[in-house]
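We were asked to recover a plausible sequence for a given structure. The inputs and outputs are reproduced exactly as logged, with field labels preserved.

PROBLEM: sequence recovery
POSITIONS: 162
GIVEN STRUCTURE:
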């Protein structure tokens, strides 16, 4: 997979850029609202957009499917990536989760399983390295890292109905 550069755009969202083999730069700006802008950069000036096409979230997903995004989505649906001996998993907190509404301190996931919640994705914002007072709210996604058995145990706890 090619390297993608990610740049936070405070108050706007995130920009992702890819340099192609033909030495052209293309990018996507993902706005906090969910809107996406597909950007083609000028061939002579990589800092200038020669074309920008606004896409709704649905249009962006459709374009991703056309471009072969389904393979990427299959891997994300598995929500499991290996990092050497460690695993990382993205677990959505459902409204019927037994731990929904609890703080990380109350849930005691690291103590109970050995895996850590390294980020919480809450709609358009994220909480990197959340503290004990941060809550596991329905609809949020917990990014969990640890040894495979610990991640599996944490996944079981975060998907267990209450």
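RECOVERED SEQUENCE:
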């Amino acid at each position: 997979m090619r390297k993608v550069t990610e740049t936070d755009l405070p108050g706007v969202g995130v920009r992702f850029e890819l340099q192609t083999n033909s030495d052209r730069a293309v990018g996507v700006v993902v706005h906090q609202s969910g809107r996406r802008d597909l950007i083609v950069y000028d061939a002579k000036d990589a800092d200038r957009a020669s074309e920008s096409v606004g896409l709704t979230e649905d249009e962006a997903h459709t374009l991703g499917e056309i471009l072969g995004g389904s393979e990427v989505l299959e891997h994300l649906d598995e929500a499991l990536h290996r990092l050497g001996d460690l695993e990382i998993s993205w677990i959505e907190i459902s409204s019927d989760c037994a731990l929904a509404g609890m703080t990380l301190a109350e849930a005691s996931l690291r103590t109970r399983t050995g895996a850590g919640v390294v980020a919480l994705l809450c709609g358009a914002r994220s909480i990197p390295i959340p503290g004990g007072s941060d809550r596991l709210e329905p609809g949020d996604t917990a990014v969990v890292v640890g040894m495979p058995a610990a991640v599996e145990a944490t996944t079981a706890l975060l998907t267990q109905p209450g």
